[in-house]
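Lecture 7 notes: from sequence to structure.

We start with a single chain of 134 residues. Read the sequence below before looking at the structure.
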Amino acid sequence: MRPDRAARIEANPRSTPRDWIEGAGWKRLNLLNRALGEFAHGSTRTNWNVARGALVALQANAEADEEAQYTGRTHALAAMIFIISVECAAWVDSFSSQLGEAYRKVIRVDDAGADRAIDALMNRAWEKRGTPLR
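Now the structure, written as tokens:
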């Protein structure tokens, strides 16, 4: 994300996670953001079963995996931890490429594999973008 855009989003007290996701060029993750938002903002209109179904749909081979219906939230959290870890690796590179390399060894991630995994998740989220949440 461009620093000027990040500064505008950060300065806006009404900014949302969606603003950061779209600003980073990750609009394809809108379904994941909305589904997690349903859990985070448990209003009386929230149908957690429908939101859980959206998280289940984001898993690879969810239709063929009998256990997928029980692992949607876990998968979503693991995916977010993975994405944050990869972003942290890029941030650590700004201090030292050697430190970034060491960090990647600790978290057992290589950039090419991480890019493929994140792209696959974003593509699944985009393919399932019509999944209802209410």
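The CA atoms of residues 82 and 110 lie 12 Å apart. Keep this in mind for problem set 3.
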